[in-house]
């Protein structure tokens, strides 16, 4: 629980401290690599595979190396690559900053909501066996997967917010 709390707190702090008001023309059209055909084609072909790998890492994190943190970063890399090649204006059409802010909180709610449901069913916080009392192993698998996806969503959106804030040009 503390891992997700730390990344969520870092993301919210970043949003509150570094977010600057947007101004007209803050996304320069020269940032788009319109003349780089090979990069654009390879990126369009690569992004679906990067996303699938990110979801794989999140889903199989309970069984082996990986998990929500690693998979969340891989998912963020797909969006960051998209922004680097097609421009941040294109990224903002796909994932506007308010959506990434909301999804950061949704990830934490999935994580903490899974623990709260376990408590409401009579167990301890994150006692996954309570999710399926007849087959506790299935409850464990479901609970761990939900928690990993909650962490993955939060990490991915915080990484995207960090990228957007670092790429934002200062207004003069």
Describe the structure.
It contains six helices and no strands. It is mostly helical. Helix 1 runs antiparallel to helix 5 (97-120) and helix 3 packs across helix 4. It has helices spanning 2-18, 37-59, 68-86, 88-94, 97-120, 136-167. The chain has one domain (33-167). The longest helix has 32 residues, at 136-167.
* Rg (C-alpha, Å): 18 Å
Global structural class = mainly alpha
H-E order: HHHHHH
Mean pLDDT across the residues is: 84
Range of strand content: under 5%
- Find the count of extended strands (DSSP E, 2+ residues): 0
Helix content: over 70%
- Tell me the major beta sheet: none
Taking pLDDT < 50 over at least 5 consecutive residues as the criterion, the unreliable ranges are none
Euclidean distance between termini CA atoms: 41 Å
Membrane topology: Multi-pass membrane protein
InterPro entries: CPA3_antiporter_subunitB, MnhB
Subcellular location: Cell membrane
Transmembrane segments: 37-59, 71-90, 102-126, 146-167
Give a summary of the structure in a few sentences.
The protein is mostly helical. It contains six helices and no strands.
